[in-house]
């Protein structure tokens, strides 16, 4: 784009907090009237140098460090890290530990997807959806508290296994919780997938084509909603995923509606996985008792709620990693906004940017600036209000 | 099937890969010279439809090591391309022209954290570090001291 052309454009800075997730990130929307013509994404407002800190912590401490990368995916990072250590050593966690890890990972997916659904509902002006989703997320967190001791930061993983067992007395409560979640999800599915206003609001909005999804190497629900069929749980089975029956949800449309649908349907699959895991869980040890980590390198990857989470660890035989590379899924999914937002309406911007379920703990801001005066013309609150008003107009006959 | 693929890749790349290490059934490390990077990445990405997962940069004190992790999702396998960059000439070809925007952010990140320059990158500015961060200080280098 030439500078001359850019001057005549209006720029909308969105940030420093994401209007949906309320996390630090900065999007500059270039707009022509009501249409978005370009976007610039700035991150790094919350960079904590965890890869660097990891080099001075012991292998056991790193598990707790990576757990603190994100409060939502607080099982995904330690899980991938532990798999990397196990890959480095050429061992596998005991079978019971793999089942426990899978149960925790799927409970985490349910609470993460419900959290997104609630927020997406709120930004469309469906505050009932917000209340519902967060209400049904609570029992999941209660279960976490019962089996791990914490609502978040479960501290279940350790290299070579898990730190706590799921005791038999807790299993009925988990089964009861997930069975009660099914009718709630049916209600959600009806309220979202069959609602004509949601159709009008989300269908054909913020389309990420399959070609773009591949070019940006999109991951998780973002990729699967665009027909790019990638799911590490199936492609490179870890944990107990190859011992239970479940389906990978793939949609072809690539719009915000498809992304919402993939997430809703994935909750059902997670429920299936949890049910089967709890029934099939074998008795036995839960820890391989790793003493020392030999020199070498290992890669661990898992399907986090937002897609492939990959950890690369190198050891020189000392007590801490020489290098620990962490790549969270949002690092690949956030840049896809560039492909999906251009040509869209400003009122749809917040929901399109939110559709990637960006997690800035893992990876980070949006405002509308008039280029002539360089002043902010719209704030994040304005954008949310615009998104909600657009829905309200559709409600009226 | 994975074996067959490895034969095909070897066949296609010929002598470009000077060391191939099958760490396990799921992990392969292939060492190449940095001049061949674009060719190898192009073959893996275009001919074998590999998905670019991420790149890791490591400071080995005597040189820099770059690992490009390519995921073969149909086979559940990661092939990591290993290449070395000299300390006195920290420049390597950018992969953005070969594999597209997926490589943009990670090359910006490695550029600012390790100080490796990517030739042909369309927008090699800072990604994570603050604007006030001093020039020529690279946090992931071994000689970096936190003051």
From TrEMBL, chain A:
It comes from the Bacteria. Residues 124-289, 292-365 form the NADH-quinone oxidoreductase subunit D domain. It comes from Candidatus Taenaricola geysiri. Its cofactor is Fe cation; Ni(2+). Fe cation binds at residues 73, 362. SUPFAM superfamilies: HydB/Nqo4-like. This is NADH:ubiquinone oxidoreductase. Ni(2+) binds at residues 70, 73, 359. The chain crosses the membrane at residues 114-134.
From TrEMBL, chain B:
Pfam families: Complex1_30kDa. Residues 32-145 form the NADH:ubiquinone oxidoreductase 30kDa subunit domain. Transmembrane segments: none annotated. Gene3D superfamilies: NADH:ubiquinone oxidoreductase, 30kDa subunit (3.30.460.80). Keywords: NAD, Quinone, Translocase, Transport. It catalyses: a quinone + NADH + 5 H(+)(in) = a quinol + NAD(+) + 4 H(+)(out). Its EC number is 7.1.1.-. The keyword Translocase applies. One of its GO terms (molecular function) is NADH dehydrogenase (ubiquinone) activity. NDH-1 shuttles electrons from NADH, via FMN and iron-sulfur (Fe-S) centers, to quinones in the respiratory chain. Belongs to the complex I 30 kDa subunit family. This is NADH-quinone oxidoreductase.
